[in-house]
Specification:
By secondary structure, the chain is an alpha/beta fold. It has one domain (5-114). The protein contains six helices and five strands; from the N terminus they run E-H-E-H-E-E-H-H-E-H-H. The protein has helices spanning 9-13, 21-36, 53-59, 69-75, 86-101, 103-114, and strands spanning 5-8, 17-18, 41-44, 50-51, 76-79. The chain has a three-stranded parallel beta sheet. A two-stranded parallel sheet has the order 2-4. Helix 5 (86-101) crosses helix 6. The longest helix has 16 residues, at 21-36. The protein is globular, with a radius of gyration of 15 Å. The termini are far apart.
Amino acid sequence: MSEPVLLRVYDVVAGPRCVDTADGQRVHDKIVPLLRTDTAVVLSFDGITMVITAFLNAAIGQLYGEFPEEKADRLVKIRDLLPVFQTTLDKSREWSKAYFRDPERLKRSIQEVMGDEE
């Protein structure tokens, strides 16, 4: 197995704020080829002062729709994330996994809560 690749999120998003889904997609697009070759990636959030769920869903969450949960969890590691954003990351991963396990079930649940608007 090769050495993990360090990916500095600050460099990809060109600044300290992770608030744009397009930036999240760019991070995602750098991760995918690595996972396809079973190469671990370490996402460094060093220098990042703001992270929102939409960014994390784009960067990490959608990986669970492309790779088995075990593989994404094993190969994608996070470091240097400010503790205040850990819950945001955990929830993004949790909800993404739930969605990709059974997207129709989640859609039905949302429709039940919101009322049948379709």
